[in-house]
Amino acid sequence: MSKATIGLTVKHRRYVPYSHAHYAGNLVDGAYVLALFGDVATEVCIQADGDEGLFASYSDVQFLQPLRAGDVVEVTATISRVGNRSRDLDFSAYVVCRGRPDQSASAAEVLAEPLEITRARGTVVVPVA
């Protein structure tokens, strides 16, 4: 029996290693965050429907601020619509800690306020129960 309900939310946090920097200034590509959205969507499907489900599409993606190597990023997926086999999800990504290479090679800080870097809407599908 499906437990898919509007408002079901899952969060993941991950440290972004310097090996993932692709651009000057230790910037990380937007695809990194989209992969994290896929991971958190998978857990939403497991919790809601007991199946990993399949990611069908994004209807909107907004890259608001850069993600940098040395950051700790928190991604969230929340069910916003439940259909027979589909679930619409709202995604957000926030930097909660930021590396400070300007201070030393291993310096970092917890941000006083999380910094929203990406938001998106997407649809997943799960097998019929």
TrEMBL record:
Residues 6-129 form the HotDog ACOT-type domain. Keywords: Hydrolase. PROSITE patterns: HOTDOG_ACOT. Transmembrane segments: none annotated. It comes from the Bacteria. This is 3-aminobutyryl-CoA ammonia-lyase. It comes from Kribbella karoonensis.
